[in-house]
Amino acid sequence: MDNNMKPNTGARLDRLPTSGIQWKLFGMVAFGLLVSWSNAIGGLVLAQLAEIGWTNNNISAVFSSLTTAGMFFGAFIGGIIGDKIGRRNSYMLFVAIHVASMVVGAFSPNMTFLIVCRVVMGFALGALLVTLFAGFTEYVPSRNRGTWSARASFIGNWSYPICSTIAMFITPAIAPELNWRVQFLIPAVLSTILFLIVWRKFPESPRWLESQGRYAEANEIMTSIEQQVEQSTGKVLPPIELEDKGISKKEVQISYSQLFKGELLKRVILGSFVLIAMNVVQYTLINWLPTIFLTQGIDLKDSVVLNTMSMFGAPIGIFIATFIIDRVPRKIMGSGLLILIAILGYIYSLQTSITMISILGFFLITFVYMYVCYASAVYVPEIWPTAAKLRGSGLANAVGRVSGIAAPYAVAYLLNNTGVTGVFTLLGGVSLVTAGIILVLGIETRSASVEDIGNVLPETEKQ
């Protein structure tokens, strides 16, 4: 192939039938999401550290807030790095940083040193999540891109129950002084295995290579993928007609400043609000639901039971999303789920019966996690041009993280002054505002090609 001829990787990827190559790529992305559970063990580690006198409520608050700050900078800076060095290299880089910070953190001599390591863990994890969710959209066909992303989210969200189960088994057997260190070393070992798999098996995104003008490399990887598909299916792929028969146009390069202009600015606003709603609603319910139960007059024992029953809605919600995400228009699904959450949340806040609280709580969490899957794994990662995919997604994720830092203070104020109804009025208001923004500013991406979605710059702004 002429090195100056466009390889048209988008059209070639979109025509591929479902086969082993997509499942292999999915497996490597899903495994990465599953084993990167340094954030999921935060509360479990703090419990052990409190037992040995390393932390108290104030120190734990610093530990948690600086973790979130690290994830903020990871999403923001990681997106810039990922668009610069590519999807494969950024995947390996952020996994390596994550592993190193967990191993060093496991041997921390004191709490201050551990908190510093925790910031680095947060940075690596924030960058890794952006790389995996946004980058994965470039590898799969447009017709079922949402389904693949939702499946990855479903697998990744099992990290919470898995690490909790591991902690439950090792806590009686290992003293607290060593227990928390082991909890960091387990995901570090699993992530090391992940790094070796990615290094050996994970290809660079042909779409990213094409966006960088590296046509020969893009074509080489694309040809290898096509050969694997033909071997897997036993059928010859249909030919495609190349857009450019001769010398191709220069690929569009997008500067960071262009994210704050025109159509891209609209997408930054859209993506930011979609993730603000996700963070405010999801983390409020995860962190405050037991306290909300107590405020409603439910005793501690029943509160724990109700919280556990409600949280079973999380994996069920994501599981349902995997089946419907590519059947419902994106704008309708996102806005519809937010309206349902707002209405159901308000009704839920008025309940006093344990039976009704448990039933409505289960359905509320189910809808919330359907939206979490939609927002973080599918919609926000796919609304960007390939040349700025990780920077755009990273910026929106960073803004969403800020809302997650601010929301607990608002929730605490409302719970103290207006009660449970005030809290759910806040969640409902954020949900309804975001639903309106999706309907007004949202773009329809279901089944649209990555190239069509990314065609946003007028000719005068193309570099």
UniProtKB/TrEMBL annotation:
Its main location: membrane. The keyword Transmembrane applies. PANTHER family: SYNAPTIC VESICLE GLYCOPROTEIN 2. It is found in: Cell membrane. Gene3D superfamilies: MFS general substrate transporter like domains. The chain crosses the membrane at residues 25-47, 59-82, 89-107, 113-136, 157-174, 180-199, 268-286, 306-325, 332-348, 354-374, 395-415, 421-443. Keywords: Membrane, Transmembrane, Transmembrane helix, Transport. Residues 24-446 form the Major facilitator superfamily (MFS) profile domain. It comes from the Bacteria. Signal peptide: none annotated. It comes from Enterococcus hulanensis. Pfam families: Sugar_tr. This is MFS transporter. It is a multi-pass membrane protein.
